[in-house]
Each structure stands twice: as structure tokens, then as C-alpha cells.
Design goal:
Blueprint: H1 3-18, H2 22-46, H3 49-52, H4 59-66, H5 71-83, E1 87-90, E2 93-96, H6 99-105, H7 109-122, H8 124-127, H9 129-133, H10 143-146, H11 148-154, H12 159-173, E3 177-181, H13 187-195, E4 200-205, H14 208-218, E5 227-231, E6 245-251, H15 262-272, E7 273-284, H16 290-300, H17 313-320, E8 323-330, E9 337-344
Parallel strand pairs: 3-4, 3-6, 4-5, 6-7
Antiparallel strand pairs: 1-2, 7-9, 8-9
Helix pairs in contact: 1-2, 2-7, 7-11, 12-13, 15-17
The structure holds S-adenosylmethionine.
Length: 345
Amino acid sequence: MSGRERISQLRGAIATTRAKHGAARLLAISDSRSLVRSLFLASMAETSLGLALVRPATLAELCERTQCTRPDRLRAWLDVGVEAGELRVRGDRWQAHGRRARAIAEGDALITAQYRSMLEYQSGPYAHLGALLRCKPGEGRLDLEDYAGTIAEASLAAAPFIEPFLQQVVSDRHPVNALDVGCGSGEYTRALLDADPQIAVVGIDVAPDVVDETRDRMRADGYGSRLTLAAGDVRTWEPESGTRFDLIALCNNVYYLPPDERADVFGRLRHLLSSDGELVVVSLTRPGSIASAHLHLLLSCQEGDAALPARGEIEHALVEAGFDVVASEMLVPTEPFVGVRARPR
Ligand SMILES: C[S@@+](CC[C@H](N)C(=O)[O-])C[C@H]1O[C@@H](n2cnc3c(N)ncnc32)[C@H](O)[C@@H]1O
């Protein structure tokens, strides 16, 4: 670079930082770099390119594996990954290289869902905020219908905190059977089954596709007749005649129920519990963190009346439904994430 070029670049940099809002402009540049990385990783997770990049591959091989008919666009996308440090190119072969890209390429379900969710449903409420603010009451997005699988998988980020909580409940109560409401990918159905070799667990979920996928995934796990999975809406689902559960768990889904219906649903579940049974509700609440404010916005932009419960709201609805709240614990550091245990009064 010539001395003249250097001086003119330096002048440009000084002018940028001295401009009104110069510091804000620098922050915006840094934000948009992070956004490009996130968008790149999200598109890697959303397409078959993620898995195709687990080993070094040429452009022609990648085109073949992903049925790409526009190598020029794919090449441009690969260049973004290399510049972001998420891909490595050696000779004429590209491969996932950054930590996050490698996790996606190796099929990590949680990271893949987290990045997919950015494109599928996390950005929509912000991109279409203007229209969403002008909707009629009850109108909104249908993310739960459209992206149920990704939603169920992305919610597993809290699993390392929820599982010990459920294990504690099982070890305190020794339930013979349990109902996992809104079981999604079945992570907590499995946690309950693994917590006690005697327990039988029924998992229900309103999304039939999610139930089918979970059944396929858990079929080979050897739970046999201890595991039953069924499609069902907690507001209407009835178990086989006379069945009562010693434990009912609602993990990460109470917020899909409109606030004014929660006490009724808890009341329904009270009738499905055995006389000394226990209901467990696990949920992020608000306010308290960026994640909780963000999830509340996503929920409030849905069709219907979904909302993240405010602090104390779950406990209040449980008492209204005829429960005694026996414990309310904060499960996750830095997040207002509660685990509530309640028994019929
Ligand atoms: C965020 S996911 C959580 C899944 C799982 N419990 C977990 O924590 O990983 C919410 C799940 O609740 C299910 N769900 C939402 N409303 C429901 C309802 N009314 N009855 C049954 N399941 C419901 C959704 O289909 C979805 O799979």
C-alpha cells in the first residue's frame, strides 16, 4: 500500500469516528459482522450444506450433495464462511472449521435448532413488527404450527438444569406413572423414564408430526410398554378410562396457554392426578433477562393469546386451580427460569 493510500484511509477512519454518532456507527459495524456470522451459520443449519461440510469437499461435490444448480451462488456463500472463520479452504476443498460450524456439521441437534430458529421464527417478529403491531386481537404468527420440531429441539438448552429437578421429584415421590404434557422431542419423557426403572410415562403433544418423530427416535431405546406417546391437546386430551397419574409435568409449554385458561387447564390436570400426585411446571418467566423478554415478544406475536408468565403467575394459577404450591425454585443462573411443584389441596 502506498503512503498516499495509507494517509487517505487514516483520514476516512478519523472522519468516521469523529462524525456525529461515530461510536454508534462503529458498534453497528461490529453488530452487522456478528449478524453475518449468525446468518451464515443459520443457513448452514437450515440446508443440507451443514452436514455436507463435515469433511473436505470440492465445489462440484457440494453441488452434487445438495442438488445445487447455481455453483456461483454456492461459491459466494462459501466465501462468506471462510471470511467469517467458520469454514476452512485447503486447495479446492472446503470444510467446517469454526466451533459452531463444526457442531452443526457433526449434527448437534441443539446448536442446529438454535441457528435454524434464527431464520425460521426468531427474526420474523422484528422484521414484520410494523404489521404485527397493527393486527386485530388474536391475529398473529403461527410459529408453533410451522416450526414445531425446531421449537421443541431449541428448548433443550435448559435440559441440564431441568433434568436434575425432575430426577429430584421422582426420587422424592417414587411415581408409578407420569404424564409429560407437550413432550416435544421427548427429552424429559426420557429423563422421567431413566429416573426410575419402574416408572411408566405417557407423553402427549399437540403436534402430531412431533409425536411421530419422537416415537421413531425413541422406538429403539428399549423402554417397551413403559413408554406411550400420543398426539393430544392438554385442553381436551383424556387418558384411557380411569387412568390417574402420580406425576404430571409441563415443561416449557405453559406459555402457549392463554393466561386466563391456565387455571382451568391446571384444574383439568388436577383431576388426572392420583390423590397424592404432584404437578410440576417448568418455565422461563418474565421479566429478568434478554432471553425472557425476547421469548415473550415472540409469544405475544403469535395467533391467539400466548404469553410468558410473569413472576408468580404460575403459582397463582395453581392455587386458583386447587393446588398447594410446595416448592418454587429458580433453576437456571442468570435466567428467571422456575420449577414449580404443586399437590392437590
Ligand atoms: C417449547 S416445546 C417444549 C417441548 C418439551 N416439553 C421440552 O421442554 O423440550 C413446547 C411443546 O409444547 C407443545 N404444546 C403446545 N401447546 C400444547 C397443548 N395445548 N397441548 C399439548 N402440547 C402442546 C408444542 O407442540 C411443543 O412441542
